[in-house]
Design brief:
By secondary structure, this protein is mostly helical. It has one domain (5-79). It is 78% helix and 0% strand. Helix 1 (5-19) packs antiparallel against helix 2.
Amino acid sequence: MARAPELEAILQAWFDLESCAPNEQFAHKLRLEELLDTAISKADLKNVSRRDLMTALGDLYREFAKAKHIEERRRLSRLK
């Protein structure tokens, strides 16, 4: 599914945060927060928080993460 590059970057950063090693979480969290803040600012959404935006993107994120997991399983099965 084609998405806007900014949305794709947010979803990827969110996925990276949830799937990274514990020692990498801080950097991934900062990246995600930066992308969320930029999206909120760009859309001029004064009363929207990062959490609000993540809640609104929840269904898209679940689809994105599911597709990433399927892609990973396919890649691993080709290596066997």
